[in-house]
Amino acid sequence: MYGPRIAKWDKAAEWPLTIAAILFLIAYATQIIARPDGFLSIACKLILYATWAVFVVDYITRLVITENRWRWFYRHLLDLAIVVLPMLRPLRLMRFLTVLALIGRNTGNMLRGRVVIYTVGATILTVFIASLAVFDAENGIGDIDTFPDAVWWAFVTITTVGYGDFYPVTLTGRITAVGLMVGGLALIGVVTATLASWIVERVADQNTKTVSATEAQVEQLRVEIAELKDLVRELRPTG
Which long-range CB contacts under 8 A does 62-67 form with residues at least 24 apart? Predict the structure, then answer.
């Protein structure tokens, strides 16, 4: 759709971007949870800046070499968000997970498996990253003072349960909460659609088998009738 050059670039940059996302996630989590000082703190900052530069270069390169820049731009707003909002970069990890969908037996199963993998993987990463973000924003200010509490709050929020035992009071924490709420609604929609697709496919398979069996029985009756006609023709002169 966007030309062979961008397809070649995406293929070549796939693993470097994945490695950059992993490094970013490690450095980001280390900064928030461990609160390092000295050399480790400097190293984490350098990794964050370096990975950000990698994704900026990737985004600009793909925008330049694509044949239809405007269409590519508005269809890849998530990539723009990954560049603008560094906390979203680990979602790049979801690309290579689609390889697991090859275990599907047919195209429908493979597509459904890919959706499930994306949903589960993106949900886990979103919960983890949101936990880091809200813990960083709320630590020492609100009720979320430990990382386990932040993880618990993220799970409760993304599933739209909302116990209310922990809640953010800062602007950053509340923005994170809004994102998780929207993500939770999207997650429910994806799970429901996937389940409905599975049920429809099962019913369609059963109908196909029934129709195939009926056609086979009709064909068998035709063969038997033709054999009876031949037998009658053979016996008629003798009678």
Answer: 62/6, 62/9, 62/10, 65/3, 65/5, 65/6, 65/9, 66/2, 66/3, 66/5, 66/6, 67/2, 67/3, 67/6
